[in-house]
Amino acid sequence: MLSAGTPEARNGGTATAEPVLRVDGLTAGYGKHVVLDGVALVVGEGELVALLGHNGAGKTTALRSIVGQVRPKAGSIHLDGAAVTGMSPAVTAKRGMSMVPQGQGVFPSMTVEENLRLAAAVATRRSSNPRPQDEVRAFVLDMFGILKRRHKDKAGSFSGGQRQMLAIGMALMTQPRLMLLDEPSTGLAPVLVDEVLAAVRKVNQELGTSVLLVEQDTKRVLAVSDRVYVIKLGVPVFDGTPAEMHQQDWSQLF
Predict the structure, then answer these.
(1) Mean pLDDT split into 10-residue runs, the chain, 254 residues
(2) Residues 118 and 70 sit within 8 Å (Cβ to Cβ)
(3) What does each C-alpha distance from 141 to 108, 138, 157, 174, 182 come to in angstroms?
(4) DSSP sequence for 12-66
(5) How many of the other CB atoms lie within 10 Å of CB of 75?
(6) Which end of the chain is less packed: N or C, by CB atoms within 10 Å?
(7) 113-138 b/e (C-beta count within 10 Å ≥ 16 → b)
């Protein structure tokens, strides 16, 4: 089993001075339409951070801006202390970001094995101390037993939840510093939502991968998160721990 240990262990015995991700004053949108206005957030080493909000709040736009799919109108984005504001997805991937989009980005005509190997082959980032790809692949297959049992089956024959698991596995094959997930529970039965979120937490804890998770299922995501941000109509309205959020009047946040 892969194990990341403490944040200090993951960094050769010393704590990281900078957070993995720092976003300050992010303003973004499409054309003249502003979706986000002054959003700030931080994801620390080994943290699982949730970004919550109602439909249309700007959560997906935030992820797309961070990963480089949307160019910010203002603000800054830093990964491990280095500016990546406005850089292309190819560059942010090389720097260590991996995004799992809403809707399970897998190749339906390819098998599980082929999807995982393709993800490894096209990964543009190469860590200074990467894990062997076979070791990462074994971790993915052990974590998602259905993928291991059906590794020769085409992804197109899988359910939505199984495709979501495969999409997360593909993201892990790139060995990211930061994994961004856009509403992985969309269209899934509650039991599968629990399974997917448990897997995300396992990735975070056992691989030490920092995670920024956008979700609609507030109660379930609070159970697996270290910290939480809420945005409302593109403006930040809450920053705190799950325990602190439980003490809030949610009607004022959503």
Answers:
(1) 39 61 98 96 98 95 97 97 96 93 86 94 58 88 93 94 92 94 88 89 93 93 97 97 96 92
(2) no
(3) 18, 5, 17, 15, 22
(4) TTS--SS-SEEEEEEEEEETTEEEEEEEEEEE-TT-EEEEE--TTSSHHHHHHHH
(5) 18
(6) N
(7) eebbbebbeebebeeeeeeebeebbe
Q: Which amino acid belongs to residue 244?
A: E
Angstrom distance (rounded) from CA 182 to CA 40 = 18
State residue 216 phi and psi, 5-degree precision. -100, -30
Rounded CA separation 9/40 (Å): 28
Q: Convert 33-63 to b/e letters by CB count within 10 Å (16 or more is b).
A: eebbbebebbbbbbbbbbbbbeeebbbbbbb
Closest CA to 218 of 17, 54, 44, 40: 54
User: Exposed, middle or buried by CB within 10 Å (0-12, 13-18, 19+), for 165?
Assistant: buried
Ramachandran class of 208: left when φ > 0, alpha when ψ lies in -120 to 50, beta otherwise: left
Write down the mean pLDDT value for the chain: 89
Neighbours of 23 (CB within 10 A): 23
Torsion angle in degrees (nearest 10) through CA of 31, 35, 39, 45: -90
- With tokens 């339409």, the residue in question is 33
Q: What is the DSSP string of 226-243?
A: SEEEEEETTEEEEEE-HH
Give, to the nearest 10 degrees, the angle between helix 133-143 and helix 160-173: 160
Q: Which residue has the tokens 């049992």?
A: 149
CA proximity to 51, closest of 238, 246, 214: 214
